[in-house]
Amino acid sequence: MPERTPYIAANWKMHKTVAEAAEFVDALLPRIAATQSDVVLCAPFTALTAVVERRYGTAVKVAAQNMHEEDSGAFTGEVSAPMLVELDVEAVILGHSERRQYFNETDEALARKVAKALTADLEPILCVGESEEARDAGETEEVLERQLQADLSGIEPGQIENVVIAYEPIWAIGTGRTATPEQAEETCAFIRDVLRARGGAADRVRILYGGSVKPANAAELLSLPDIDGALVGGASLDAEDFAAIVEAAG
Ligand code: 13P
What we know:
Elements: E1 7-11, H1 18-31, E2 38-42, H2 48-55, E3 61-64, H3 81-86, E4 91-94, H4 97-102, H5 107-119, E5 123-128, H6 132-136, H7 140-151, E6 164-167, H8 181-198, E7 207-210, H9 215-222, E8 229-232, H10 239-248
Parallel strand pairs: 1-2, 1-8, 2-3, 3-4, 4-5, 5-6, 6-7, 7-8
Helix pairs in contact: 1-2, 1-10, 7-8, 9-10
This protein binds 1,3-dihydroxyacetonephosphate.
């Protein structure tokens, strides 16, 4: 099985002004200087440039939290792939459950966004995850398979190794209720099986767990065979906490 470089991403959501983002990066960089992992900061659009400029010369990558699938057009309030690439942004979160839930993000649009991101040389961090009702009803695998098949339908099997998948059970986001290591591993392994069945190098795909990841639970989650990293919300807002999670990845 190929070695997969751990991938630790901070999703700041709608937090941090430019000044706060700059302060965070300055505090983080010396704390993670020795890491061998991919460290990715997913900043709000307004703070992207400040983060990009501060991380030049380091291994830290910068991601946006959303992107429109067209290059340009009459889409008030949206931002496109070429606009992100121009800023030296390297990745983009797509399909976060908050965007699906509050902004009507659809699987159809996500299929186009994933394809567009790859064409533009932006690494998509595609988020999938089930609701509490779906888990309770035993429908987790069905929901995830449907999301994966739909959201990846616009790309060739060979492109899958350039996609990062984040498994984020909705009931674990911002609730302090982390999936158990067994649930997280079992579900991430299922996701890899779905990718394998679609063809392409599923063993090379980084699959992240997200949902109440904290310094206290990171090491255990990250030690699991099919969990290659974390997408961290609340605990990524504090440089010391986030650095501790990066350190937990080894
Ligand atoms: P929390 O870590 O705050 O639960 O958020 C997870 C998340 O949504 C990351 O994208």
